[in-house]
Amino acid sequence: MRPDPAVARRPGTRMPHGGVVRGAGRVSGTVVLAHVEAGLHGGAAAELLRLGPLLALLLVAAWAWLARTGTAEPRRRPLGAGAAVALGVAGGIHLTLVGQHARESLAAGVFFAAAGILELLLAVAVWRVPGSRRAALGAAILVGGLLVLYGVSRLADVPALGGQEAVDALGLVTKLLELAGAVLAAAAAGVWSPRAIPPGLVVGATTLAVALAARGLFGLGAEPWTVVAVVAVTVAVGLAAGTRDWECLGVAAADGAVLALLLRADGLAPYLVAGLVAGLLRVAAWRSARSPLAPVAVAALVVLVVPAFDARVEILHVGHAGETAAWMAMFLAASALALGAWRWGRLPVVAGFFAAHLGLQAVRLLAGQTSVEAVEIPAASLGLFLLATVVLADPQRTPSSAVPAALVGALAGGIDVALRALGMPYAPLLAVAIALAVATPFGSAPSGGAIDQGTGEVPAGNVPARGAAGRSEGRLD
Fold it and tell me: The domain containing residue 321 runs over which residues?
């Protein structure tokens, strides 16, 4: 169904079933089809922000690719690749903004051009020779100076740079990338050695933090006490089953946090039932190599099909560039989840899902079966991203090899689009559940080992044997 411009709602109005109007649009089923972002600073560069969590996924995918293609020693290669991506993207943003700032001030235009070129040169240097202390020192000096100038230009009127600037998401993400690039360059040069955090803990802590802060940041999500209750159930079931591994308990916490983020119902009972089902299915996944049920997807569907619960799914379309704090929180969370999927060795699953989802939705667009807004909103939603990176990229349910993993992701993405075309509710949940059930014979054990510094994947020798340790949205088109 296409959006109907004649049917408008007041911006910011909360609609039934979790939708929120961000501009003019039409409600179809449980979500709003369109929103309008106005006044974005940065023109073409600011359009990057419309990608929402997909921007974080693209950056991590580029990082993984450069880590594979680099020629440096394996220990330094992923760190140099990460620094190169961060500095390169920041430099590209600066160059994109040259024309806009040159119209304000010639000096500002020259400054942005110089900063962009220097960052691109440093990006090449830290990728080719990630152990270079000169490159790391150059990155630290440049980034330090840019951070100071950024702060000054936001606090005072600097005529040479076009006057006092406002704090916005584009500027903050650029500074974040620069800082990350400098830190990673220093780590690659051996100046500082970061301590690896188990991916299960990264994913669990990230989803739990987002679930607890969602009400305050996005005006969406369950109440914090509801989040605590659901997570307590999923973790308690794991503890009762004898699990004491912190990373596996982090995965159980992620299950509960995702359920609390996606489900919306009156009262606590539906959440507790979902948490209990997810906890039991997670224990089954820890104990059996052939458990075909995806814990979060199946638990959510169980609650959604019970009429007495009157439950629904919230899309969590929260990546609005005009809301700086919320956008930055979403970007940081998406980056952590994408990194967690990569360190699990399941980034191909996520990439396969979105490649199939977006590719087939593009075919539907060309055939006139849907609209741009109906494709953009779910694709750039935090809800779909959580399903792809936490639920679908489950190290206990998906293959560890890149090609089979990508095929599982593509299968889920294809089923999702097919179900949307058929008008089925809860298409993404069904797609994930079906794809993971099909993938069960090809799945692999939970990844508990550290990332391979050369390939960015979990080495087979670091993966414990399965069982040895514990670990709809509605239709929118």
Answer: 199-451
